[in-house]
């Protein structure tokens, strides 16, 4: 790994972060909020200073990134922005503990959505904007934004893009990485504006609509209200968010293909069909479980649809306290957390494509037990998958559950009950945020043991980088030239 190259790349990303922090600073100045003005002015200055230091370290570095450099740049960037993103909370005084502030920033940039703030309504508008803006930046990935804005990285940009945006996201996208990243951001921005416009149309205040739209398309979950979406009883608001959470959970490459006239790709895509079928199945289970809790069928269907898409897209919004649902419904949502959304989406989780491939491979193994001499390929759509792909999927899922077991054990050892510990880990790994029990949607993570917060922070970053990118940097081989 070339540390000078990694530093130069990280510097450019931090300059972008400093520029984004000017938005809450401007809002704080408009609101004449002294603590917020001081917080975001200091934070932007420190972020710029750090970027300058990294730039000096990386002066004269090669502009071509190798694979090891890409992993290093992505990991260093995520750690740096998590620390720098926490500074406004500490300076403003909205969060007192440095570790809790870092937890909030990591949850923001990784689109985890878990919070240590018990009273979100008491935050300044600038800080609420910053929380949702962190989601929006991290949703599509600040590294993807980087390769769209700084195309001079050439071939190295491709390595950086792949390290950040893991998974089969290239379907329907142009071969040049700069156009790919730029196209993704135009689609992402357009959908965010559409969501915000519809929320405003259905009665949500403009500021709240803007923040919720950013959280929704990022599959984040931060809200401007302590009660989350439950503070807005409008059916129009619920159905709008439901639709856009589902959109955010799908492969953005398909949207690019549809924009270029390839609408049939949406119908033919195996992962999309599988994801929609799973969502409908979960909605049906939840509807049957909660229909007696609501005055009519339409209302029960609305809440069942909202909470299903909120969890499967890993957004984590709460229209009502789903931790009060019957056990069957809660366990179903827990399993939905683990799956997450589609590859190439802003959602977290194992991803629907991997679950589908494992199911197809399992069925093939069952057939081979009956017909041991048969030659049966695992097919996804019209494509026969190679053994290397199946091995990669199996290894990812194995690593995912290994990390899930280790982190859950740690949280339980630190005092959480088993259900709360496992659901909190699942929520962190899958970027859902809240779990269940004492880590439920109406609770904050402020009371979690400091070591427990560190475990959850590690899980959020590992889940956002799809585990292996982070593990690769921890491998000493990655640091050798």
Describe this structure in words.
By secondary structure, this protein is mostly helical. The protein has a domain at 263-337. Helices cover 66% and strands 1% of the residues. The protein has a two-stranded antiparallel sheet. Strand 1 and strand 2 (383-384) form a beta hairpin. The longest helix has 27 residues, at 387-413. The radius of gyration is 22 Å and the shape is globular. Mean pLDDT is 86; it is low at 151-155 and 168-173.
Give the uncertain stretches in residue-range form: 151-155, 168-173
Distance between the termini: 5 Å
Q: Tell me the Rg in angstroms.
A: 22 Å
H/E series, N to C?
HHHHHHHHHHHHHHHHHHEEHHHH
Largest sheet composition? 2 strands, antiparallel
What is the spatial order of strands in the main beta sheet? 1-2
- In DSSP terms (H or I, runs of 4 or more residues), the helix count works out at 22
- Structural class category: mainly alpha
Overall number of strands: 2
Amount of beta strand: under 5%
**Can you give the helix content as a percent range?**
55-70%
What is the general shape?
globular
Mean pLDDT: 86
Summarize the structure.
With 481 residues, the chain is an all-alpha fold. It has 22 helices and 2 strands.
Present the secondary structure layout.
Blueprint: H1 3-20, H2 22-31, H3 34-57, H4 67-84, H5 87-92, H6 98-109, H7 125-140, H8 142-149, H9 155-164, H10 177-201, H11 206-217, H12 235-248, H13 252-259, H14 264-268, H15 270-290, H16 297-312, H17 327-339, H18 352-370, E1 379-380, E2 383-384, H19 387-413, H20 418-429, H21 450-464, H22 468-474
Antiparallel strand pairs: 1-2
Helix pairs in contact: 1-3, 1-4, 2-3, 2-7, 4-6, 4-9, 4-22, 6-7, 6-21, 7-8, 7-11, 8-10, 10-11, 10-12, 10-13, 12-16, 15-16, 15-17, 16-17, 18-19, 19-20, 19-21, 20-21
């Amino acid at each position: 790994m070339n540390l000078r190259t990694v530093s130069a790349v990280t510097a450019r990303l931090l300059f972008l972060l400093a520029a984004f922090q000017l938005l809450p600073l401007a809002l704080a100045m408009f609101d004449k909020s002294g603590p917020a003005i001081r917080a975001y002015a200091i934070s932007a200055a420190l972020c710029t200073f750090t970027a300058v230091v990294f730039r000096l370290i990386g002066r004269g570095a090669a502009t071509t990134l190798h694979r090891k450099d890409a992993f290093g740049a992505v990991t260093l960037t995520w750690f740096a922005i998590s620390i720098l993103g926490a500074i406004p909370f500490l300076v403003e005084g909205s969060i007192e503990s440095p570790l809790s502030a870092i937890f909030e920033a990591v949850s923001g940039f990784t689109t985890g959505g878990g919070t240590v703030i018990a009273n979100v309504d008491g935050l300044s508008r600038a800080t609420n904007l910053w929380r949702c803006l962190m989601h929006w930046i991290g949703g599509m990935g600040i590294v993807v934004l980087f390769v769209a804005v700084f195309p001079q990285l050439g071939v190295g940009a491709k390595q950086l893009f792949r390290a950040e945006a893991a998974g089969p996201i290239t379907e329907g996208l142009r071969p040049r990485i700069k156009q790919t990243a730029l196209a993704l951001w135009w689609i992402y921005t357009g959908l965010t504006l559409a969501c915000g416009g519809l929320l405003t149309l259905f009665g949500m205040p403009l500021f709240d609509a803007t923040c919720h739209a950013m959280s929704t398309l990022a599959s984040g979950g931060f809200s401007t209200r302590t009660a989350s979406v439950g503070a807005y009883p409008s059916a129009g608001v619920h159905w709008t968010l439901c639709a856009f959470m589902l959109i955010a959970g799908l492969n953005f490459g398909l949207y690019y293909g549809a924009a270029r006239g390839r609408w049939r790709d949406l119908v033919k895509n195996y992962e999309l069909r599988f994801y929609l079928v799973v969502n409908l199945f979960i909605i049906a289970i939840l509807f049957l479980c909660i229909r007696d809790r609501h005055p009519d069928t339409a209302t029960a269907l609305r809440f069942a649809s909202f909470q299903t898409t909120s969890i499967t897209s890993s957004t984590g919004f709460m229209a009502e306290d789903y931790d009060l649902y019957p056990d069957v419904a809660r366990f179903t949502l827990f399993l939905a957390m683990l799956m997450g959304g589609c590859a190439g989406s802003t959602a977290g989780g194992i991803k629907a494509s991997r679950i589908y491939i494992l199911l197809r491979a399992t069925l093939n193994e069952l057939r081979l037990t009956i017909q041991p001499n048969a030659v049966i390929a695992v097919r996804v759509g019209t494509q026969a998958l190679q053994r290397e792909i199946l091995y990669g999927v199996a290894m990812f899922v194995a690593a995912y559950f290994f990390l899930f077991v280790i982190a859950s054990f740690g949280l339980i050892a630190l005092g959480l009950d088993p259900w709360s510990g496992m659901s909190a880990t699942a929520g962190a790994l899958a970027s859902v945020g809240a779990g269940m029990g004492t880590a439920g949607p109406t609770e904050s993570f402020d009371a979690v043991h400091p070591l427990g917060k560190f475990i959850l922070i590690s899980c959020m970053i590992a889940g956002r980088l799809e585990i292996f990118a982070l593990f690769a940097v921890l491998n000493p081989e990655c640091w050798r030239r």
